[in-house]
């Protein structure tokens, strides 16, 4: 394992490669989609593995609360703003501009001199990874995350592919995505004081509806 920061940059480089392949072969994207998806999937897998380990092993106490609040606040904001913005850009200028911007963002992420995690602990060992699996509740949490990953992926497809088939316009799909994100933000605020189990119950009830 190369360390959190190195892994972060590696994942962005792999993502840039996937986006570049898609951009250069956009007219044949249906033929190479599986290849692009595999490359992007590898990057995503490495990223989330190192990210969860960093959150678990390196962030503690009140710092964890601040970090997670910032992370999910940004995720909520982007979930409202980005769908409609990207949908509008695609409708007006085509898919190429989205891939170009994405590649630039990835390259900047690789080259930027990030000033965090410059401590010896960033050189992870296999024993560090195995120690997580021995923690109480790890197996049940793993099962839950697997279930959540499957439902999240399915939900993404349902609220992206099907709306496009009915609406037939990227901007319209973007508006729908932003509306869903906005409703999610309101619900999160309304139930902000509930415990984890209650929030999960609300989330799955909403997904079912």
First-to-last CA distance: 42 Å
Main beta-sheet strand count, sense and barrel state = none
The percentage of residues in β strands lies in: under 5%
Task: Supply the number of helical segments.
Answer: 9
Radius of gyration: 19 Å
Mean pLDDT reading: 78
Low-confidence stretches: none
How many E-type strands? 0
Structural class label: mainly alpha
What is the helical fraction, as a range of percent?
over 70%
Plain-language structure description:
This protein is mostly helical and 209 residues long. The chain has nine helices and no strands. It has helices spanning 4-24, 29-57, 61-93, 96-111, 126-133, 138-158, 161-167, 170-190, 196-208. The chain starts with a helix and ends with a helix. The mean pLDDT is 78.
Pick out its properties.
mainly alpha, 0% strand, 9 helices, single chain, 209 residues
Précis, in short:
It is built from 9 helices and no strands. It has helices spanning 4-24, 29-57, 61-93, 96-111, 126-133, 138-158, 161-167, 170-190, 196-208. The mean pLDDT is 78.
SSE blueprint and pairings:
Blueprint: H1 4-24, H2 29-57, H3 61-93, H4 96-111, H5 126-133, H6 138-158, H7 161-167, H8 170-190, H9 196-208
């Amino acid at each position: 394992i190369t360390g959190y920061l190195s892994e972060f940059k590696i994942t962005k480089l792999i993502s840039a490669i996937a986006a570049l392949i898609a951009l250069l072969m956009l007219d044949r994207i249906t033929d190479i989609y599986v290849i692009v998806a595999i490359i992007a999937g590898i990057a995503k897998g490495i990223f989330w593995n190192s990210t969860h380990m960093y959150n678990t092993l390196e962030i503690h106490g009140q710092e964890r609360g601040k970090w997670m609040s910032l992370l999910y606040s940004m995720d909520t904001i982007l979930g409202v703003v980005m769908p409609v913005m990207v949908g509008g850009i695609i409708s007006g200028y085509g898919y190429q501009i989205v891939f170009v911007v994405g590649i630039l963002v990835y390259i900047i992420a690789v080259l930027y001199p990030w000033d965090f995690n410059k401590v010896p602990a960033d050189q992870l060992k296999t024993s560090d990874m195995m120690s997580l699996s021995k923690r109480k509740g790890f197996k049940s949490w793993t099962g839950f995350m697997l279930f959540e990953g499957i439902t999240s992926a399915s939900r993404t497809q349902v609220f992206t592919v099907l709306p496009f088939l009915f609406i037939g316009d990227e901007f319209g799909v973007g508006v729908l995505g932003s509306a869903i994100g906005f409703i999610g933000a309101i619900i999160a605020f309304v139930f902000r004081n509930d415990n984890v189990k209650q929030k999960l119950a609300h989330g799955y009830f909403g997904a079912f509806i």
